[in-house]
UniProtKB/TrEMBL annotation:
Belongs to the amiloride-sensitive sodium channel (TC 1.A.6) family. It comes from Trichinella britovi. The chain crosses the membrane at residues 77-102, 470-489. This is Acid-sensing ion channel 5. Pfam families: ASC (PF00858). Its main location: membrane. It is a multi-pass membrane protein. One of its GO terms (molecular function) is ligand-gated sodium channel activity. It comes from the Eukaryota. One of its GO terms (cellular component) is plasma membrane.
């Protein structure tokens, strides 16, 4: 075979002609002399491995896709049209179903379950926080020769909020207008007593034993004030006192905690910037956690029942769909908001708000520091960056993922009635009894309402739903999908190989060499 012939063979036009010439030559030798019939080289010519019709026929025969075999074997035009429409509709249904499942999986990853559950064991009655709504003990102020004006000036450090315009007018005319004079008197008073501002506030405030008379649980009477360092909380209204909850073993009245509160009104020092109400403020807090925003007022001279219902929240922190604070015993949302709002002002003034209590990073601000620095910086900051500050605080101070909220249905009666006067020995005891409040706090039932997050669709559920749509409309499975992928991959590969000039040249060269070699062998 000459070079010109070889070049023609490897050209795009000469391939088919070359195959035809080989076949004709083979046939010619056989027909001319039968003696070369058995010796003539037999050249086998293989077509492309992915012959479109044959490969499609084979795939249609082995696949489990619904309707594909019927579409391929349809021998009428209208049947082919019907099966085409059916297959397109099935593919559209699969696409829409899979899209809906994927969209739900992405946009709504969490679902909520609501369950009323009975407790498997005894439950703890929450801690009870009692606030007498008064800051300074008038008896102590008289003993230390502290005037009313000076005591009012010292209490301005708690804030300037008043509950009535008349009180604000009085505060402006009688206290704020004399701040320079009262500032000097306050410093002289502290020097005389040998106290700092912080120490004076602690000594002048009511103590736990001044307010709480008796605490009783199912196991009997116990001390209300056994740990004053952790049980006393400084708030805007003054000291509040935390009573530890008890273990309730049976549901209903009398199985919880009973507290007797006495308000020493004779020793109250009323300030214009306080609640100035006849009663107490009660808060409930989960055992070992910080207080929340709940508030309940109970008037003096009453017997109050607080039957409790507990709602437990068990949420999943899954931003950006839902964000909450993971379990952290030291975290409190109220303290977080206070810290977030006051941080910048505290840093500039080098002191903390006196009502922040145990969360203070700096010594408490005295009245002069509060009026001329802390309040000024805070107002300036809020005016300039109001929305930005509160957006930051809301994003930082999240709800706890796992928490318990207590709901109390408060009801009360007058206590004591006039007829009980004969049970006391003196008028002093009678006045003390009339200024008392009795609290009974208990669970109606030993159970709780559980509101819990759970994944709306797990990974296994997502795959199962997608597979359900795929199988429902097309009758496919994972193995069917593998067959389809392998079929498409093999056809693409074979098409690429058949179009590659280098590969075809090598194949044709091998064929020609084999033909020439066998021909020479026969001639010998």
């Amino acid at each position: 075979m000459s070079m010109l012939q070889m070049r023609n063979v490897f050209s795009s036009r000469g391939r088919n002609k070359f195959y035809q010439n080989l076949i004709k030559a083979n046939h010619l030798h056989i027909c001319r002399g039968g003696r070369y019939r058995d010796k003539m080289p037999q050249i086998e010519v293989y077509p492309c491995k992915c012959n479109g019709n044959d490969a499609m026929t084979k795939f249609c025969e082995i696949t489990t896709f619904h309707g594909l075999r019927d579409w391929h074997n349809a021998d009428r035009f209208y049947l082919r049209v019907i099966w085409t429409v059916v297959l397109i509709g099935a593919l559209s249904a699969v696409a829409f179903g899979c899209y809906s499942i994927l969209n739900e999986y992405i946009s709504s990853p969490l679902a909520i379950s609501y369950l009323v559950k009975e407790a498997d064991e005894d439950v703890h009655v929450p801690d009870v926080i009692v606030c007498p709504l008064n800051r300074f003990n008038g008896k102590y102020l008289k003993e230390k020769n502290v005037s009313d004006s000076l005591a009012w000036y010292m209490q301005l450090s708690f804030g300037l909020a008043t509950k009535h315009p008349y009180m604000r007018k009085f505060m402006i005319e009688n206290i704020l207008s004399k701040t320079e004079t009262l500032k000097v008197e306050a410093q002289q008073m502290l020097d005389r007593l040998g106290m700092s501002f912080e120490m004076f506030v602690q000594e002048a405030s009511f103590k736990c034993s001044d307010v709480l008379i008796q605490c009783q649980g199912p196991q009997g009477i116990f001390s209300c004030c056994y740990d004053t360092s952790n049980a006393t909380l400084m708030t805007f209204a003054g000291n509040c006192f935390r009573i530890p909850g008890v273990l309730q073993q049976l549901p209903g009245y009398g199985m919880g905690i009973s507290v007797v509160v006495h308000l020493p009104k004779d020793n109250f020092h009323i300030a214009p910037n306080n609640f100035n109400s006849d009663g107490i403020l009660v808060k409930l807090a989960e055992r070992g956690t910080e207080i929340g925003h709940d508030m309940t007022f109970i008037p003096t001279g009453s017997y109050a029942l607080l039957p409790l219902r507990a709602t437990k929240y068990d949420f999943i922190n899954n931003p950006p769909y839902f964000e909450c604070k993971p379990d952290d015993p030291s975290y409190g949302r109220v303290s977080c908001f206070d810290d977030c709002i006051y941080t910048v002002a505290e840093k500039k003034c080098n002191c903390s708000h006196v009502a922040l209590g145990s969360q203070r990073r700096y010594p408490p601000c005295d009245t002069d520091q509060f009026l001329n620095c802390l309040q000024v910086e805070l107002i300036k900051q809020l005016k300039e960056q109001w929305e930005e500050i509160f957006n930051i605080c809301r994003s930082r101070c999240l709800l706890q993922c796992v928490r318990t909220q207590y709901t109390a249905q408060v009801s009360y009666l007058k206590f004591p009635i006039d007829e009980t006067r004969r049970f006391v020995e003196s008028d002093e005891q009678w006045e003390e009894m009339k200024n008392s409040i009795v609290l009974d706090i208990y669970f109606e039932r030993l159970g709780f309402t559980l509101i819990k997050h759970y994944p709306s669709m797990t990974e296994q559920g997502f795959l199962a739903n997608i597979g359900g749509q795929y199988s429902l409309w097309l009758g496919g499975s994972f193995l069917t999908l593998v067959q389809l992928i392998l079929f498409i991959t093999r056809c693409i590969w074979d098409q690429l190989i058949s179009k590659c000039p280098i590969t075809n040249s090598k194949r044709l060269t091998n064929i020609s060499h084999a033909f020439l070699f066998k021909t020479e062998k026969i001639n010998r």
